[in-house]
Specification:
Layout lengths: L1 H7 L2 H8 L26 H9 L1 H7 L10
Amino acid sequence: MYQQKLAAGDQEAVAFIRGMSPVAWQHVNLFGSFEFGDEDPIVDMQALAAHYADSAFWHQATQIPPDEAFD
């Protein structure tokens, strides 16, 4: 995603990605049930990249909801 946004000249997204830290991940579920098996999961990376290439989605995904802005 970083390379795609860099190539597109989307400096706002590039700055956002550079500023991400695992410490800031608010929505990572560490209390769920996880399976670590020998099977490789099938992840459609092209579909994910296409989804995140949509500028409207990217803009919405990087906005802080008003109720969380001053936490």
